[in-house]
Amino acid sequence: MFWVNISSLCKISGKIKQVAGFNAKGCVVSNCYRRRGSATAYKFLSRYRDARNTIRREYVLPDFCRLSRGYLRDPSQTAKSSQPEDAPQAITLNRERFALPELLFHPSDIGLNQMGVVEAVVESLSRCPMNLRAALVQNISLVGGCTLFPGFRERFFTDLRSYMDVDWCVNLADVSNPITHAWSCATAAFTGDMATEDQLFVTRDEWNEHGEEILHKKFLNFLDFESEEAEEASDEPNE
């Protein structure tokens, strides 16, 4: 038996996601998790404690004495009866491997009233001019650590494709390192002519004077930000 400082729990849980999610494919984005019967099937499999459970994984917790870093092990090769009393503890991962990544697409599963990643993309496209939307969906980059989940790219493409017009070509750009890609793009932008520095940044004085409108003016001036009230007023017949 060992004691773990609760201040280390965030660090441990982050390491579980890193090791179980990326290195050993512990967390997987499923293309069929929400289909009728699929979630029930995962729940049914998770009840088994033997080889019939093909989705179970075990993450061995560090005891910070003999083991300073946790690792993923195959539960089918480790029998509890053969383990010594001082064997390290382990966390069992079952259908959580599929349910947790699912929150990226359906946050409402845990009561979060917000859009998933695909819905956010669709909402962003709806705010762009109609003549640009077909071109924008041909150049989508997936960035961030969560995009490294196995199956994320395929699931994102499938869900987004269902929202788009049949004549549109949906294409996901190849990104060598999704974790650092956004920063690399920003760095490349700053290596150009700094004479245009005023167009790359918003100063505090500009923000205090103009607020959010300064962002529209500098970076999003190609969009139409007319209010709905103005559009409704223009549609009303002149008396």
Automatic annotation (TrEMBL):
Q: Which Pfam families match?
A: Actin
**Gene3D superfamilies found in the cross-reference section:** 3.30.420.40
Q: Which SUPFAM superfamilies does the annotation name?
A: Actin-like ATPase domain
Supply the PANTHER family for this chain: ACTIN
Q: What is the similarity comment for this entry?
A: Belongs to the actin family.
**Under what name is this protein listed?**
Actin-related protein 5
Which species is this UniProt entry from? Answer: Cylicostephanus goldi
